Amino acid sequence: MKKIIALILALTMVFALAACGKKAEPEATPEPTFPFDNDSTPFDVSTLTSDDVKNVKVGFIFLHDETSTYDLNFMNAAKQACENCGVEYVIKTNVPEGQECYDKAAELVDAGCTVVFADSFGHESFMIQAAKEFPDVQFCHATGTQAHSAGLPNFHNAFATIFEGRYLGGVAAGMKLNQMIEEGKITADQAKIGYIGAYPYAEVKSGYTSFFLGARSVCPSATMEVTFTNSWFSPDLEKEAAIKLIDRGCVLLSEHADSMGAPTECESKGIPFVFYNGSAAADCPNTFIIASRINWVTFMEVMIGRVAKGETLNADWTGTLANGAVEMTELNENVAAPGTAEKLEEVKAALIAGTTKVFDTSTFTVGGKPVTTYQADVNDLGTFTPDTESIVGGEFAESVFRSAPSFDIDIDGITNIDA
Amino acid sequence: MNNKTRTPLFHVARRAALPWYKSWAIRGGAVLLALLVCGLITTLVTGEDPIAVYAAMWAGSFGTSRRIWVLLQNIAMLLCVSLAVTPAFRMRCWNLGGEGQALIGCLASAACMILLSGKLSNGLVILCMIVTSILAGAVWAGIPAFFKAKYNTNETLFTLMMNYVATQLVAYFCVVWENPKGSGQIGIINPNSQIGWFPVIAGQKYLLNILVVAVVCVAMHIYLNYSKHGYEIAVVGESERTARYVGIKVERVIVRTMLLSGALCGLAGLLLVGSTNHTLTPTLVEGRGFTAVMVAWLAKFNPVWMILTSLLLVFLSRGAGEIATNFGLNSSFGDILTGVILFFIIGSEFFINYQIKLTKGAGKEK
Predict the structure, then answer these.
(1) Is this structure's pTM higher than 0.90?
(2) What range does the domain containing B235 cover?
(3) Chain A residue closest to B211 (CA)?
(4) Which residue of A185, A262, B350, B364 has the fewest C-beta atoms within 10 A of its own C-beta?
(5) pLDDT tens digit sequence for A94-122
(6) Which of A61, A125, A231 to mutate to test the interface with B (most CBs of B within 10 A)?
(7) Domain count, chain B
(8) B122 contacts in chain A (CB < 8 Å)
(9) Which residues in chain A are contacts of B70 at CB distance < 8 A?
(10) What ipTM score was computed for the predicted complex, to two decimals?
(11) Which residues in chain B are contacts of A416 at CB distance < 8 A?
(12) DSSP string across B154-210
């Protein structure tokens, strides 16, 4: 026993000595200012010459491999964008959200990459670490929140106004609910939607709220129940969540998680659903209605094109319905209500024109009252302090200040069944 | 008696101990054979040139100086957990809880970094991390050890179950300390103040871990082979009754050895959080607690040989990843190759311990 204690003590002393070598006082971080720098201009790849791209090499870091619908969407986009631009690229798959992300980023730089892109939310801190070390290389990160406040000229966030796509998905869902009511399968009060979310934070909340608002815009009696799996990719948990929601009387499902767990359950029980990331029509021909997805080719072309031309990238870049980054998959006419395609075209045009706004404050209430002012946590400093007034001109200014969503209001009509 | 007894073509007999060079020649032969089979599978299944696949495998570990550092770091961390479980294994106490014991050490370190930053000086935070994570690992191993010593519970199952408890605890605290809210992720802890980050030695961020584990490795070698404790462990491992007969307090040895085992796992957790990752996730230990079992077994619980076996396993897994990247193959293909190689290596032990003798006059009727 004495020897174990002696061993522990000895180790302790080694570390304590090592620790003394370092300054005890942390460096004072300068009080930063955060200019919002959010752009959504696409890039015309036809302007690229072979001279422009000859020194560009792109490295991609993906959380899973092609078995995840989320990563597959990125992988396809990466290949396509690199082909469109005519640049070399390297793909690293199954990179966890830890130090290995930094190691892989550094390896990609060693391999001559001038742009490094990572696709998962948890990669962000490790990409920032790499960006600090390699100032000559551009680091781009999808879905992240810290670029505009990190103060690094070579670190950038990208996202898309996927809430517009989810709103359209919601419209298709609402049409389906109306059809079910008309056919007498359910009463208007039973028009309850179930939604499977990954984690209860802004990205997911913004998504399910926009989906719900879309559905309620055509089916006023719609309500929604939300449950969370606390995982981005878990076929089992997503399937269980689907069973739970269906048992609670939900007649239509949608989700924001990355596996096929819920769709296959919906198909076996005949519950129509709206999907995300890509079409599930092949596996679920009798229940899949439509899916929204982000077409990352648009951003990746911006990223590659601007680097090739020696132009700077903004801190944030936001894809939209208008610039082609937010897309709907083909509508499954076998399941969708009649007239859905026409209605979607109409709403899409209205969204692009700005005559319909997804987070229009006149369409939702909190505690029975309309929202007139709301401070959202836009500057991500790890303190969760609401810092930016986000109700602007009668709507919640989503993905305006930064690309990642910041809408995290719990509105009436949506019940979190885990709470 | 039936005089038509058939004699089998060959029979298996136990070998006398082989000289070391012969046993290593058999192992080397097994590795070569494994590589040959892997090459065959690769060409048949994917149509890739097997030589290019091996080159990629090699490059995955030794391609650049950064990769060599990462390789050494991974060897160090795997070796640390392997060294930790070894004393218990020598005692024939199957501690399969290395994963959880290391993870709980990670949790303790991360807790100190998060809760004490700004309250204590950097040096004191690091001191707290060291003490708490080593203690946490020891406690996590001490609980099953206590029940084994007191009630003779099955330590294999008990330690295995403790892994899941640790994983769930960490998952819980990932939500408690999440950043941003609701995301279930902690991200890098104290990214600007760097409180609780271990110092970087000579500009190499992995050097500290490598040095610490090298010291632990030498210490463990001495402890197991030249100390009274080490002898007690060996005797208990051979026969508990003999140990009792010669006056060794078996229960005490079990608890003491498991505490040491857990403490070293806690140290591995400490290094993972304080020195390299600076974050906490339920998968931070990356299965090393289980891989360590293989490392220790392959090296016959010899701390110095374990350097080689952990090198082999890390090399294989990094090579597998590189193959997947270079040839656009699913990462499962790399795992298949790793499986083939391990099959041959483990299989070679059979030929070291046993020999196959052709029976004289086989096939003829007597």
Answers:
(1) no
(2) 17-353
(3) A14
(4) B364
(5) 888 888 899 999 999 998 999 999 999 88
(6) A125
(7) 1
(8) 19, 22-26
(9) 103
(10) 0.75
(11) none
(12) -HHHHHHHHHHHHHHHHHHHHHHT-SSTTS----SSSTTT-TTPPPPBTTBTTHHHH
